[in-house]
Amino acid sequence: MGYLLPMTPIQQSPATGARPLTGHEPLFIVLNTGSGRGDAQALQDIIRRVLDEAGRRYQLMPVDDPSRLTATARDAVAQARQADGIVVAAGGDGTLNAVASQVLGQGVPFGILPQGTFNYFGRRYGISQDTEAALRGLLGGELRPVQVGLLNGRLFLVNASLGLYPQLLEDREAYKQRFGRSRLVALWSGLVTLLRAPRQLGLRLEYEGRVRDLRAPTLVVGNNRLQLEHIGIDPTELDRNRLVAMATRPVGTLALYGLLLRGLFSRLGDAEHVVNFAFDRLAVSIRGRRRVKVAMDGEISWMDAPLEFKVSETPLPLVVPVDAPDGARP
Predict the structure, then answer these.
(1) For residue 84, what pLDDT is reported?
(2) pTM of whole model > 0.90?
(3) DAGKc domain spans which residues (predicted)?
(4) Domains 27-146 and 156-311 share a fold
(5) Mean pLDDT, to the nearest integer, of 254-274?
(6) What kind of architecture, by CATH, is found in domain 27-146?
(7) Where are the beta strands (DSSP E) in the chain?
(8) pLDDT-wise least confident of 115-129, 192-206, 255-269
(9) Under CATH, what is the fold of the domain 156-311?
(10) Which of the pair, 38 or 65, is modelled with greater confidence?
């Protein structure tokens, strides 16, 4: 479809750098055809049908090679800046993260069509996992400045972690490749991973003017109210532009199973082996490690230590449905 460039500049929001929505913005949709729950062609058909019926201008930008995701997202941002459009990510958590990383600070609105298993980010802001419903919410949506976390300067939407948790995610992805994407498969893979004795990390944590030494198999930093509530950790500090860290002290396999069960029943916060605290900035050194495997919104990578977790000074300009729950509002 063709695009008309704006004839006059539109004032941008000081909070997010993005302009107010008019309801006529063209959509630049980065669609990861290799992620999500179902058929990529069926997903594209739904998108085309809904947007054609609505008379909304759009460009589908499918990606079948994960190595091209960042470049495609960057191209979508450049085109959206020219056409006063919205960049939309369609895919799982990793896809949302990759596209949001290119959007942050660029002065363009960000929309999502979530296709992941748990959809914590979308659910937090009232965005449906049903593609047609998500599209209709996007078409009539409004902008909300959304807090995002940074790990060594790289964005995360839901959480970032090191140690046992990245291993759980790696094993979960392997099981999903074999047995399909479902919450039951995710739970089973976690039980199998915990059978192996996790390696303990020697962590030095610096935050709020404190220095704390801790031995733990994992450290997880959360930025999502729903996920924290789900496991029984108080999320209210997120409303104060802070992040929440969680770590488990060294325990055996049976105790880890107990912690997993507590998490399933939203009681992890009162477990004696769990440490959790809020912070503005957290520096993490790992004894004997110059590089460490980390997970950010489910995607695994290696990163140089020490690690620095903090809240981004620039919020993400997310398009949310106008009937989003009050909890989705800043």
Answers:
(1) 96
(2) no
(3) 22-155
(4) no
(5) 45
(6) 3-Layer(aba) Sandwich (3.40)
(7) 27-32, 58-63, 86-91, 110-114, 142-146, 149-151, 154-156, 159-163, 201-207, 210-216, 218-222, 243-248, 274-279, 281-286, 291-296, 299-304, 307-311, 316-320
(8) 255-269
(9) Tumour Suppressor Smad4 (2.60.200)
(10) 65
